Amino acid sequence: xxxxxxxxxxxxxxxxxxxxxxxxxxxxxxxxxxxxxxxxxxxxxxxxxxxxxxxxxxxxxxxxxxxxxxxxxxxxxxxxxxxxxxxxxxxxxxxxxxxxxxxxxxxxxxxxxxxxxxxxxxxxxxxxxxxxxxxxxxxxxxxxxxxxxxxxxxx
Length: 155
Known about the structure:
By secondary structure, this protein is of the alpha/beta class. It has helices spanning 40-47, 87-91, 103-121, 131-135, 150-154; strands at 3-6, 27-32, 60-62, 66-69, 92-97, 128-130. The model has no long low-confidence stretch (mean pLDDT 97).
């Protein structure tokens, strides 16, 4: 069973990373961190690192050991790249998949987490989106496969 930790960033975190806007999600958006050496703990720490000056956030990050919820699932996070009022940002739960460590275990954990979230909401896989679907960014890059997205289909 995947360890699930709730460690919300404060609403006072700089760069509007937790705007506190209410959200009723309709989708789950999948990302990969783009950092092959960073764990879920590292990614969570980055959200409140004083050297981080980016307005970007996500709801849950998952690695080979755990999942960490950084923004409540009923609040907006800035992860989809489709603007302040974009459906991806305003209506989807952002999940970051770490690229470090045991990739297969991390992917298994991510799949279990996503399946649990879908089941809790009575949703099918038609509610899943890639970051790419909202903004065209090659993300989750771990699923890209030179544009074939075979990893995405398998996930």
